[in-house]
């Protein structure tokens, strides 16, 4: 038991919790914590340029490493700037701990300078939030915050600490290990699931991000190969099953592949693992997989039967569930005609794209070449919009955790700070942010952080001069009336190459198909600073296939007005 | 809309009540009445709440969502008291 300040206690508690990097910005109320942080040899502090960047960086770090990400902000505006990353991490079940300074205990509730009730603000977007009122509680609270963030269904946890608690003298007592119970999958449900799998005719593995969080990719592959059942991976699960595997049909949902969507729609058995029947996957719920029985395994009981009633509910970590299923499934189903149907769709409706009529670059080609040249060992992040969907469709993912994006909340501006966090966690891997010109303008200030802190990420701006996904919807559903979606980035305002240089990065531009490979290779050769590539692409390219919002998945369109599952007798 | 009674045991922790109430608000639950009473144990309180859910919405889902909260020690949906009286 040592006599220390609350601030020193906080830093030691973070070290004891295994924290190796913090993304943050100091300010008045959190100032005491920054003094002992200067002396920590175990924790690297990355000084971001906006607290939102700190939060998304913590998320990128957590998703790249599987460890808890940590961000720090001061009270008031520092704390409120963390709201978006907290909500983002809550939706995508990412384990992060956010530490915020707060005004002195005696000032709380007085509308003091830089006071915001961040604990109340964060209520619906965190797993839990602590406010520390006794400095002696700091080690136990930090230990519990890390355990809560990582345990069960992962998520964000907030720890709010008043300035005078950080400044107070206290004692440091290492926290006792926090026990997190792990639910064993119920044996009778596993038996029922195994029975349904063996007797199914048109089964499909519907794989969600829970399989990635559980580290269960190897167990999934074993079960998939033993049973021969086709696999679809949602946006949050890209990489959980290798794209190159012949049983993989791709991503389902609003911009999924025809075979993946058809596999769900025509299925007689959905084996849903770590997924939550999100509206972007199901389309109109009443029309989703109408003839399928459902095995639904998830670590969060509140997700089971939330949107679609499960015939076999299994509460448990996906790794435990898959291990149990691997032991219980003794007989593979006969799937000859099912595969004949799916292979036929695969042959007839591969992912594809047209080159823009105006002679500009096809954005899909750029992303496909990045995936091919940079390869599956890299980590890719994306913002939100057309470029995100193309990054999900046209990069081949072979490893879980190799695609990090904002799935649930759909946070534009996620790519650059998430890439920064991922690169800090895995310095030996290449990290590429595939970003849009709209997204990039929301969070590019973190490139300064990357340039100064030796975080050599690559950023590929898929610059179509517009808020592309919104423009696509205006084209399809608002009679081509393009209200407020033009960004003038094709007029070089801003000039992304000049902006990159100003931010301390290398700036490259590519406008011709013949230059694409060369500019990607040149970016890969730069190792001493971050690289930004301005890929000037056509503005009319659209994301296909598409299930329009408010329609059933059977109405999937391969291009505008062409509905193969709906119109044809397959 | 259907009426449901829930009974919770809540940790006496700062923000615990707010977290429960916010969950009702963000999940679109109408609250008819809510009472919070101390228990013989000093560290927990008992909350009885009557809520209205749209027809067809199962209270189990709400019970599970409440169970996720760290400060909720237990939660049960009490059977409809009117139905109990008929059975008695």
TrEMBL record, chain B:
The protein's Enzyme Commission number: 2.2.1.6
InterPro entries for the chain: Acetalactate_synth_ssu (IPR004789), ACT-like_dom_sf (IPR045865), ACT_dom (IPR002912), AHAS_small-like_ACT (IPR054480)
Gene3D superfamilies: 3.30.70.260
Signal peptide: none
Enzyme class, broadest EC rank: transferase
Catalytic activity entry: 2 pyruvate + H(+) = (2S)-2-acetolactate + CO2
Pfam families: ACT_AHAS_ss
Domain ACT per the UniProt entry, residue ranges: 5-80
Domain of life: Bacteria
SUBUNIT field: Dimer of large and small chains.
Record's protein name: acetolactate synthase
Organism: Lentzea rhizosphaerae
């Amino acid at each position: 038991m040592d006599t220390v300040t609350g601030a020193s206690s906080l830093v030691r508690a973070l070290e004891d919790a295994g924290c190796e990097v913090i993304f943050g910005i100091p300010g008045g109320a959190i100032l005491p914590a920054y003094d002992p942080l200067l002396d920590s040899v175990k924790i690297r502090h990355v000084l971001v340029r906006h607290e939102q960047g700190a939060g998304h960086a913590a998320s990128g770090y957590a998703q790249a490493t599987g460890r808890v990400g940590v961000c720090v902000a001061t009270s008031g505006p520092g704390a409120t700037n963390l709201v978006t990353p907290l909500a983002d991490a809550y939706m995508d079940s990412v384990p992060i701990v956010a530490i915020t300074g707060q005004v002195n205990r005696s000032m709380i509730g007085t509308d003091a300078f830089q006071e915001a009730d961040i604990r109340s603000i964060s209520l619906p977007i965190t797993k839990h939030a602590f406010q520390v009122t006794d400095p002696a509680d700091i080690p136990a609270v930090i230990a519990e915050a890390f355990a809560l963030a990582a345990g069960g269904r992962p998520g964000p946890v907030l720890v709010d600490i008043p300035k005078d608690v950080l400044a107070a003298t206290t004692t440091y007592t290492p926290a006792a290990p926090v026990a997190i119970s792990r639910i064993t999958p119920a044996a009778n449900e596993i038996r029922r699931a195994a029975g349904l799998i063996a007797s199914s005719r048109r089964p499909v593995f519907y794989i969600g991000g829970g399989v990635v969080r559980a580290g269960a990719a190897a167990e999934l592959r074993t079960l998939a190969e033993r049973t021969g059942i086709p696999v679809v991976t949602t946006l949050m699960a890209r990489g959980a099953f290798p794209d190159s595997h012949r049983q993989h049909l791709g991503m389902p949902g609003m911009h999924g592949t025809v075979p993946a969507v058809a596999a769900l729609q025509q299925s007689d058995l959905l084996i849903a693992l770590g997924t939550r029947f999100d509206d972007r996957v199901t389309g109109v719920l009443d029309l989703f997989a109408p003839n399928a029985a459902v095995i639904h395994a998830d670590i969060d009981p509140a997700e089971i039967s939330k949107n679609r009633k499960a015939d076999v509910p299994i509460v448990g970590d996906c790794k435990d569930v898959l291990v149990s299923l691997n032991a219980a499934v003794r007989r593979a189903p006969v799937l000859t005609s099912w595969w004949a149907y799916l292979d036929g769709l695969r042959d007839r409706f591969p992912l594809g794209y047209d080159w823009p009529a105006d002679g500009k670059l096809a954005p899909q080609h750029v992303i496909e070449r990045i995936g091919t040249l940079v390869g599956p060992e890299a980590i890719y992040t994306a913002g939100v919009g057309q470029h995100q969907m193309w990054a999900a469709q046209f990069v081949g993912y072979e490893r879980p955790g190799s695609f990090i994006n904002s799935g649930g909340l759909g946070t534009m501006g996620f790519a650059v700070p998430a890439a920064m966090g991922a690169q800090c966690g895995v310095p030996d891997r290449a990290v590429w942010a595939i970003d849009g010109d709209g997204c990039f303008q929301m969070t590019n200030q973190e490139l300064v952080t990357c340039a100064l802190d030796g975080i050599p990420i690559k950023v590929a701006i898929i610059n179509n001069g517009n808020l592309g996904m919104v423009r696509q919807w205006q084209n399809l559903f608002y009679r081509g009336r393009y209200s407020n979606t033009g960004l003038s980035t094709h007029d070089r305002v801003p000039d992304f190459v000049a902006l990159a240089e100003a931010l301390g990065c290398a700036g490259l531009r590519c406008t011709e198909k013949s230059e694409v490979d060369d500019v990607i290779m040149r970016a890969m050769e730069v190792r001493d600073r971050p690289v930004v590539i301005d890929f000037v692409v056509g503005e009319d390219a659209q994301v296909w296939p598409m299930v329009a919002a408010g329609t059933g998945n059977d109405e999937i369109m391969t291009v505008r007005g062409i509905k193969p599952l709906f119109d044809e007798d397959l | 809309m259907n009426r449901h009674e829930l009974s919770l045991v809540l940790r006496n922790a700062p923000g615990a009540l707010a977290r429960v109430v916010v969950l009702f608000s963000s999940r679109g639950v109408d609250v008819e009445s809510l009472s919070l009473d101390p228990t013989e144990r000093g560290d927990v309180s008992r909350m009885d709440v009557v809520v209205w859910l749209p027809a067809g919405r199962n209270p189990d889902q709400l019970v599970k969502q409440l169970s996720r909260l760290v400060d909720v020690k237990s939660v049960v949906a009490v059977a409809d008291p009117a139905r109990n009286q008929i059975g008695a």
